[in-house]
Amino acid sequence: MNVLLFLVPLALLLGALGLAAFVWSLNAGQYEDLEGAAARALSDDDVEDGR
Amino acid sequence: MTMDVDFSTLATHGPDGARRLELALDGMTCAACIFEIESALKAIPDLTTARVNYGDRRLSLEWTAPTFDFSIVSERLRRMGYRARPFERESGERAERETSRRLLRCLAVAAFASVNVMMLSEAVWLGGDMDATTRDFFHGVSALIALPAAAFAGQPFFASAFAALRAHRLNIDVPISLGVLLSLAMSVYETLTHAPHAYFDSATMLLAFLLLARYLDCAMRRKTRAVAANLAALRAPAACRLDADGAQSYVPLAALAPGDHALVRPGERIPADGVVLSGDSSLDESLVTGETRRRSVGAGDTVYAGAMNFDGALTICVLAAAGGSLIDEIERLLDKATAARSRYRRLADRVARLYAPLVHLAALCTALAWLLAGASLHDALTTAIAVLIVTCPCALALAVPAVQVAASGALFRAGVLLNSADALERLAEIDTVVFDKTGTLTTPEPRVANAQEIEPELLMLAARLAHSSRHPLARAVAREYPRAAPLEGAREEQGAGVVAIVDGIEARLGDPCFCGVERDCAAAARDESSVIAFRHGERSAALVVRQTLRRDARDTIDALTRRGLRIIILSGDRTAPVEAAARALDVAEWRGAMKPADKVARLEALRAQGRKVLMIGDGVNDAPALAAAHVSLSPIDAAQIAQAAADAVFLGEELAPIVTTVDAARRARALMRQNLALSLLYNAVAAPLAMAGLLTPLIAALAMSSSSLIVTLNASRAGRVSAARELEGARARSPRTDGPNGSGRAGDESRDGRRVEEEEGIVA
């Protein structure tokens, strides 16, 4: 079972990374406007016209 | 009518010299508007950032260059069909936003911890052949996750429990904190002594569940507040400030400082308390005092913010602390009433007060019983602690907020914005409804009272002519056909009326003398109303303008009476008009000529009789009464001070939301009680198991989560708030009961259409 000594902390580390990402996005204000974020995904203002 | 409002005074300064301004936006209907607005503003020089918050219907601007001109932005928005008004975030809203962020952060940590600890715990529960070393390893890792997580995520509960204990009170957070701390402490001890059972999962799961409920509750309130603040910003008029050199500039009300001079034209509201410097006029102070008779003012008279200027332009000097006795008195009464209000004890806290000593006693008895039966001290203590863990009030603490979230969300969609968290509980308890008359039972703006006696074609023409004037009486006529096209070449004669040529014949609207029809109008004139005349060639009409009852006032009162509520009208207006309104509405108890202090005294008297009063009012003079009542409601066009004192605000021109609110609150209370009963039932089943020493962490986890889920699912039933059915029926039977909204007229349709649009724009 020695593999657990290695796998469990690894799993926790990955989880902690996710948590850190969430806290970062929260502090960056990404949850201020959930409805707008849904709509902004459809925006194509970052696409060049190709002309 | 364009005016360049100087909003730069409201911008906040960032540390890097950047300036920020937040605007409430009106007219956003779909997501495409985001891109339309942002790309249009991107082209403006000097503007660094323009970002739309679609959920809150707001736009935030940032710029650094001092050359930036705000009027370009507002002009561009106006041309695209949006209305933007800046506003200052009130401190309450800012605090709410901070709280909601903090709760979300705690929730994230608690959820992360509970998921990972659960993963390890499940391995322990289900891995039957697991050796003791592995189990200890899992418990150790769980402790490393759960302890810091609980220390962080448990703070809201620990702080609240500590505050309550220091004040020698018990609230629901006391047993929660105790349960969490004890289960953690016992689990650490068990881990160190290589025992088989640890409760790390219970502690973290509990925190995650409770934080979720609190976050949702907070988020709902925040959204409601944001919408209310937007509405206030969009409705706030700009004041016309006269600078020392005589130049006029439009500024937001907040920018008016004491000593400033402001110009108030006919048809505008007085922007701030002050003294008249020059000009003569009459003021309609119904929003201030409830009095519908107009007061004449001249140089030297004190005027109050919110009064409507009727006849002539006034120049006022803004006063610092409104020396007038009226506002002082209202502030004083308001402070007193607000202090008294905090006596209310919430349902959940009342339950906690009984519940907490009970479970602590049960735990103590368990320990003693086991000791007497010959168990070791360790076994007796762990059993007692298991009792405390399993009775930790997870479901109990969810019972009320879960219902609150569902019910206030549904009310929000129905156009009722709740201000305070416990308003629903208090609303459900009411047995008496006190109405203010002016602006609440009646429409806040005057209307043409005899509209249905006048030929529609003639009235339409009068309305088109009225669109050219800003006079309050003309606007009442214009309101009959809000979408009618103004007449070409109409010309206003100050203080007399409007005149235009229609089909080659002169049409006049205004003072009876101005139209030459004094004789016809003399008959129509009555005590309460103003008469405005209209003549087109040989045809003429006398339009009686006054505040009419809201069109569903009668139905609403009937519906409330049917619910067993006692109805009382208390008005600041004179006795005669109050009596007329009371008779029209079939309300037996009414009183007029009441000062703000009289209203508060009457409410206190009702309270002394054991009555729970719902106060509904809109005027500045109602504010103390709104704060003194058990619970209070205000229409959205109420004075700002009244809205701030009320527990909830309802949108729209009708009173029907009152009935909806009462129904929803009663339903919510029923569900809260059901939920409390369910969670007590859960404890009645789980506690004996724990007392008998049969509880394992697996059973505790299953029982706690299932009871929490049941309570939450039951609460979601509060989300279905339906408009009062009998009111719908009444409206269908007789489309018009009172007021000027004749059925089948073009104006009626467009007015309703616009109102629906407005509400959808706000609520969607």
UniProtKB/TrEMBL annotation, chain A:
Cross-referenced InterPro entries: Cyt_oxidase_maturation_cbb3
UniProt source species: Methylosinus sporium
UniProt name for this protein: Cbb3-type cytochrome oxidase assembly protein CcoS
Pfam families given in the database record: FixS
UniProt gene name: ccoS
TrEMBL record, chain B:
Location in the cell: Cell membrane; Membrane
Sequence intervals crossing the membrane: 103-125, 137-158, 170-192, 198-216, 351-372, 384-403, 676-704
Example of a GO MF term: ATPase-coupled monoatomic cation transmembrane transporter activity
Span list, region Disordered: 724-764
Basic and acidic residues: compositionally biased ranges: 746-757
UniProt keywords, alphabetically: ATP-binding, Cell membrane, Membrane, Metal-binding, Nucleotide-binding, Translocase, Transmembrane, Transmembrane helix
GO process annotations (BP): metal ion transport
GO cellular component, one term: plasma membrane
Domain HMA as annotated: residue spans: 19-85
InterPro entries: ATPase_P-typ_cyto_dom_N, ATPase_P-typ_P_site, ATPase_P-typ_TM_dom_sf, ATPase_P-typ_transduc_dom_A_sf, ATPase_P-type_domA, HAD-like_sf, HAD_sf, Heavy-metal-associated_CS
Domain of life of the source: Bacteria
Annotated PROSITE patterns: ATPASE_E1_E2, COF_2, HMA_1, HMA_2
Family to which the UniProt record says this protein belongs: Belongs to the cation transport ATPase (P-type) (TC 3.A.3) family. Type IB subfamily.
Name of protein: Copper-translocating P-type ATPase
Organism per entry: Methylosinus sporium
